[in-house]
What does this fold into?
Amino acid sequence: MPREISNPDPRESDHRDSKVFQPFPAELQPEDSSRDLQHAVSERLSLPRLRPEPLDLPRAYCYSNRVYLLRESELRALAEIGTFRAIAARDLAQLGYGGDSKRMERDIRHLREGGLVSEKVARADRTTTLRLLALTREGARLAKRSAVVSEDQTLFHGFVRLHEAKHDASLYRLYHSQAQRIESLGGRVTRVVLDLELQRNLNRELAALEPWPEERERIALRHGLAIVDEKIPIPDMRIEYDTAAMERGHLDVEIATRNYRPRELCEKARAGFSLYALPEDAACLRRVLDQYKIASGIVPL
It folds into this structure.
């Protein structure tokens, strides 16, 4: 999705050669609240397992001359929110807390009072609203200092434009469905890379070299990307994982909207991204691809 993004908390990261995971035919819906879901979520992004609340005692974390008393569940919430820029509160309760919305609300209230999380309300449609969560600068830095995520996992802070924050919230739901698919095949998710980080790393290398076609192609391939009509399309999200055979792989996904220009949509499809869309947009986007005789499908979210 074309966007203007502000306030990243970037970290340098090495990009290793990887195999591209093939697109899945349909989204796997997450299960309802269960121990299995809580365990599966804890294994993703190397987050600590969600303990029963009575056993999850607060610990002291010092940052910027302040002491924060936080539970592991609160650190996990900071990590999940920061990884995806913005998350819908209802999705965090369902997917991050295994359906325990009361526990999630207690944690978010504590994090908000500590100045670590901020909230905004966006219009979901004509009749409903969407409560969105994002990290503050302090929240992102504290999460990195606490080592709740791996060193190479970027965390973001601050809200982008509300329509883009809604888009990022959709990425969180899509991530969990695809992570379940990867895990069902014996794989394990190791990192999530959003478009801003991919674009930044790519631009840094391109700026340092002569703009020869063969050099651009080599750089694109090193980042697991393709050149389409002399451009290097960037996916909304990359999910990096280890397969059951301990091989490195990644899955590039794009959430398309009816606002995409036909050429832009075709470039994303030809780049090999797995394309998803809201049900109300999927049909018209399929017609565009059919018109240009591109076989890639659009999977409804």
Q: What stands out?
A: The domain at 32-184 is CATH 1.10.10.10 (Arc Repressor Mutant, subunit A). The longest strand covers residues 248-256. Confidence is low (pLDDT under 50) at residues 3-42.
